[in-house]
């Protein structure tokens, strides 16, 4: 029987130390659960295709510095959350979908009766 690979084997010691120094808790998925990884991989693929590729509308030249990548990333995340239409969300951006979701939670689904 093969032993499962521990998540810590995939994490760099220096990365973990950097997180600790910044007071950030690492979020590593549970063993044998590929669902969280699938979401991350899908998002990374979209990011590479939509923001990082050479002909991306978010780029105005080569990515030479970390600042260049940070600006492209910030612009892409803003667009992704506020303007990109997501077919799985009914062709609305995530922030609009989330606003409707929480508004529905706050709206009673049954009539409120006045006290007698």
Topology:
Layout: H1 13-22, H2 35-52, H3 66-82, H4 94-106
Helix pairs in contact: 2-3
GO molecular function: nucleic acid binding
Protein name: Transposase InsO family protein
Domain Integrase catalytic: 1-101
Can you characterise this structure?
By secondary structure, this protein is mainly alpha-helical. The protein has one domain. 50% of the residues lie in helices and 0% in strands. The protein is built from four helices and no strands. The protein has helices spanning 13-22, 35-52, 66-82, 94-106. Helix 2 crosses helix 3. The N and C termini lie far apart (68 Å). Pfam families: rve_3. This is Transposase InsO family protein. One of its GO terms (biological process) is DNA integration. One of its GO terms (molecular function) is nucleic acid binding. Residues 1-101 form the Integrase catalytic domain.
Q: What separation lies between the terminal Cα atoms?
A: 68 Å
Shape: extended
Low confidence ranges:
none
Main beta sheet, described? Answer: none
Structural class designation = mainly alpha
Rg? 21 Å
How many domain units? 1
String of helices and strands: HHHH
Work out the number of β strands.
0
Mean pLDDT: 83
β content, as a range? under 5%
SS summary, helix count: 4
The percent range for helix content is: 40-55%
